[in-house]
Structure formats: C-alpha cells, structure tokens
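Researcher: I've been going back and forth with a colleague about how Membrane or secreted protein might be arranged in three dimensions. Neither of us has a model we trust, so I'd like an independent prediction. The organism is Polaribacter porphyrae, in case that matters for your notes. Sequence below.
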Amino acid sequence: MAFFTKKRIVLFLLFIFPLICFLLLSTGKNNFTKLPILTQQVLDISEIKPTSSTTFKEHVSVVCFLGNDIEASKTRLFNLNEKIYKKFFDYKNFQIVAFYPEDKYNAVINLKKEIGTYTDMQKWIFTSASKEEIEGLYDSFSYKSPLENLGSTKAFLIDKNASLRGRTNDEDTKEGKLYGYNLNSISELNDKLKDDLKVLYYEYYAAFKERNKNKADRKEVGL
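Model: Here is an independent structure prediction for Membrane or secreted protein. You can compare it with whatever you and your colleague have in mind.
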C-alpha cells in the first residue's frame, strides 16, 4: 500500500492518466474517420432534372422519397426535421432533399408550411420529379428494397462526390449493410444517422487538415 502515496497518485492523475486517454482516443479515431461508401457516384439531380439548380456535388445530403401518399410521409419528415435537420442546420453545405411526384405539388406546399412553422426551411429542398425520374434516381443507389408507391421509409446519406454512404458492419441489418436509415425510428435517426453524419463531417475535416499540413510542409521545403 506504501506504493500508492499521495504524491504518486497526483502524478498519475496529472501526467499518466491523460496520456492513456489520449492513446485510447487516438486509436478510436483511426477506426471512425471513414464512413463506408456503399454505392459510387449515384445519379446527380442535374442528370435527372437538367433545369434544377440543386445538386449533390459538394454537399452533404440526406435524401428521402415522399411517394404518392404525402400525408403518410408527414410524421417521418417531422422526425427527420427534429432529430437531424435542426441539429445539422449550421453545418457547412448540409441539405435535406425530398423528392415527390409532380402531381403532389399542393400537398407538399401544405407540408412545407407545417414543417416551417418553427423551422428555418433554407436547407430543406423539395424537388418534384416524374415517376421515371424518381425510379431512375432510386435505382442508382443499388439498394435492393424497392420503392413503395414511389416512396420510402428510409433516408439516404449522399456525400460530396454523390456517393451513397452507410454502414457495412451494422448489427441490425442482413449482411451488415445499412443503405438507409428508418425515418419511423427515432432511435435509428439519433443513434445511427446522426452519428454517421458526424463521422462524415469529421472525415472531411481531417482531410482538410491533412491538405493544409501538406501545403505547409511543401512550402517549408520550397516546393
């Protein structure tokens, strides 16, 4: 017991314990800096709607498909708004893109008004499209589960290169691949989509830091 003197305990807390924490965090960081790419370069919005100014490129996009039953999508979008949109509204180049059939314009206008009652809608992008355009975009995700009535209960995460991100080791999905996030599940939005968005943004932040470091190193050696 003499080994655990007050002086040694203080030294441990001041120097050794922080070092252990740093090493553990550093090891963990290496495991979580990359979010898997499940589908390379899906169709961009400009490819299905050339007149649209909205694009996946250089944005972090959460994509959803409202389908023909806009009323049925309402609760799902409110979940997405509260648990994801408001949390990431201030993040650079973040957007939520919701696709809906062209003949549902009036219903979507009413939905936007309801969501916008207590929300800044600046980064909510509602995009109308034909049946063929919606199905073509969705098929490019290479997700096996088909649309139902042009809608989906899933939200999808698209990176700045228009690639679909997700998980390859998810415990709750077959074969471990998580292509989309269940909009009906508050816990899945909280525990999976929110975490994966943070991982993706950290990935971009780490890449930005690495580029700046490389530039500084090259400048130092006169390149």
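Researcher: What would you highlight for our discussion?
Model: I'd start with this: The first helix runs from residue 6 to 31. After that, consider the following. The chain has six helices and seven strands.
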